[in-house]
Amino acid sequence: MMSILISSTGFASEQCGAAGYYDGSLTKGSSMLREIPRVLRIGIGPHPQPAAQRASHLRRASLLLSISRRFTTTTTTTMAQQSPPQAQSQPNIHLYTAQTPNGIKVSMLLEELGLPYTVHAIDLTKNEQKEPWFLDDINPNGRIPALTDTFTDGSQIRLFESGSIMQYLVERYDVAHKVSYPKGTREYWEVNNWVLADGRAGTDAGKQTTLPYAPEKIQYGIDRYQNETRRLYRVMEKQLAKSTSGYLVGDRCTVADIACWGWVAASAWAGIKLDKAEFPNLVAWVDRIVARPGCNKGRHVPKRHTMLDYWSKSEDEIDRAAEEARGWIQQSMKEEARLSKV
């Protein structure tokens, strides 16, 4: 006769009967499931048990099976809720930018990473970056570049300041380390040094590139920022002289190179001629970056990059070019001063 033989262990009644058994551990849930074959065995028994005893054991086995299923489902759900969401496979990047040394950093990086993105060209001559829609939703500081993307939680995230944007893009999308190094490595921190040094170069070179727009020449300001910018160029020259790859850090082009390149490319506009005799490695590095398809394409976003054209122009030609923009820049400065008082 076929009968159901159930282990006489008290596990089902003593342990599963406790309301607080579940503690969120998948290990206990798995062990409970593994216990079922030992508690519940189906076979041919030579000595059938009384009906009442069989019914009691069946109830215990049923309770064990029910709790184990509930436990596993709850644990799986809890783990899914606690696990960090995975990055989406397709980015939804919108870049708000203009043709400036800061603006082109991000588009150069996006092209190097091969990421799709939509460009929103911001008209600086009309102070578009100061309009309410931009200040409220894109960058409260009213500057370019800025970027939005769909974050891992499905909602929009905004990034502003070029360094922050570049860090976000690299940490989220450069999993193959095309233009970066694994976090925590010696090279990772060295790249970080140069990206932050770009902030210094941008401050001084940036001020120097604005001097051509001044209504009058102030020699102290010209000398102060030209000398400091030239000093920074020498620092980069020495670093590149030691490099075996021709890039600032390690064996590849990284965000360090991309972050610094725009300010060096604008050297002539800043009043500094990069002579090959004085800066042989820096000049070669500028050309090396341009030779990269991604960087070369990215530097022309949202319109053609012209800073390298001024390398072959005279000071008078550069001054005439600056004169064309001097009017709207000074008007923009007045408008920004007015808004700062509101």
UniProtKB/TrEMBL annotation:
Residues 184-310 form the GST C-terminal domain. PROSITE patterns: GST_CTER, GST_NTER. Coiled coil: none annotated. Residues 90-177 form the GST N-terminal domain. Gene3D superfamilies: 1.20.1050.10, Glutaredoxin (3.40.30.10). It holds the Pfam family GST_N_2. Belongs to the GST superfamily. This is Glutathione S-transferase. The lineage of its organism: Eukaryota, Fungi, Dikarya, Ascomycota, Pezizomycotina.
